[in-house]
Design a protein that fits this description.
two-stranded antiparallel sheet; mainly alpha; globular
Length: 149
């Protein structure tokens, strides 16, 4: 079976995403990882720990930790504990990050517009559903290496 070009071009998807973000990141003095952390927290309510970012974005724990530290130092993010739980450190965007997040979301909208140009809403729904199934298969195979056979 030959994989669809989409999967073979996944590096191109990341490259395009990076190219679209490059001017904004340069203007804001952020790295792509730092912007990804800000956008993850803004776009995923209830997912507010470094562990959530690592697990859901499949990023290295050390990279996420360094990115969070940098954002905290810049006053864009704060760490906090929920009452009664001093084990889990949560992350909260600070007001200074609001304009950056909105600018990042605008780049994400442009990216989606490029990817889904000439797709009908129904085609988008179908594609999202199929990609979610693929993501579930990948997650299951990563969680259970015996399923990779």
């Amino acid at each position: 079976m030959v994989l669809p070009a989409f999967f073979l071009r996944s590096q191109g998807l990341r490259k395009l995403y990076g190219q679209l973000f490059a001017p904004l990141l340069s203007q804001l003095g952020l790295t792509q990882l730092e912007m990804d952390i800000l956008l993850f927290l803004a776009n995923n309510p209830g997912k507010d720990t470094a562990r959530d970012i690592v697990e859901l974005r499949h990023l290295a724990k050390s990279h996420v930790s360094a990115g969070v530290e940098s954002l905290v130092e810049r006053g864009l993010l704060e760490r906090y504990y929920q009452p009664g739980n001093r084990k889990v450190i949560h992350l909260r965007l600070l007001p200074a990050a609001e304009e950056m997040v909105e600018a990042g979301r605008e780049v994400q909208r442009r990216y989606a517009g490029i990817l889904f140009r000439d797709f009908t809403p129904e085609e988008r729904r179908q594609l999202y559903a199929l990609l979610e199934r693929i993501a579930g298969n990948v997650d299951a195979a990563l969680a259970d290496p015996t399923a990779q056979k």
